[in-house]
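WARN  no MSA supplied for this record, continuing single-sequence
INFO  ligand: S-adenosylmethionine
INFO  echoing inputs
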Amino acid sequence: MKRLGRVFLVGAGPGDPELLTLRAARLIGAADVVVHDRLVSPEVLDLAPATARRIPVGKAPRRHPVPQEEINALLVSLALDGLTVVRLKGGDPFVFGRGSEELDVLRGAGIPCEIVPGVTAAQGCAAAAGVPLTHRGLAGGVRYVTGHCRSDLPLELDWAGLADPDTTLVVYMGAASIDEIASGLIAHGMPADLPVLAVNNGTTPRERRLLARLDDVGRRAGQAGFSGPVLFIIGRVVSLYEQCPGALLVRLAADIEREAAHA
Ligand SMILES: C[S@@+](CC[C@H](N)C(=O)[O-])C[C@H]1O[C@@H](n2cnc3c(N)ncnc32)[C@H](O)[C@@H]1O
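INFO  complex generated
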């Protein structure tokens, strides 16, 4: 009888390969096959052995090249073929990543699987910009929300609950809806001049940041012509970025390479 393979649901972090966990790097380096999302950076995929199959199954907003059911079936069939499968997802597999849905299907099919957490985009992007997500006197908590609804249904957010200036709000997948989100928050009492940091391609050599006020973030983000993933950090903690805009607490891989070349 054929040996059963395993599936590792691995968080690839926000982009910089230096932000992978040791476990993630080790598993990628030993994979027979890597099934990866669109947001997994080429630098991270380069860690897979040259012999490993790489299968892209990424989804772009409003485009679903490989339906979720097909991804699930693919993972099951690769494991039934006896392969060691790394299912690589941007950030953390359990934060807006549908990792739990894949886990459900794999467990249902009797496939041994394991979760390897990753640095979620909120944490990576905030740390790289020198913005703490909580800070005594500025934010006593943090909330992660998605700005994207299933099948493009209207946004259904708990506006009254979210409009709390003592809590940092991080919006994932909000590039198309940030204007609506900002208006909803202001309508429910959030100060119009609350600072917002938009981070595009955070922790990669392509990173761009935009500092705005809540009442003009939609217009300015629209003008910025971002390409790639964008995350919005809304709250008083962003005032710390205003004081120190160049801060890079997590150094980008590109900076380290540049420094090494000049050493
Ligand atoms: C489908 S969600 C996946 C989130 C991922 N599982 C995580 O934990 O970060 C994709 C969203 O994550 C955010 N994101 C992921 N990587 C990012 C990055 N490097 N820079 C900015 N935003 C990022 C963006 O808001 C993007 O639209």
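DSSP finds ten helices and ten strands in the chain.
INFO  checksum written, moving to next record
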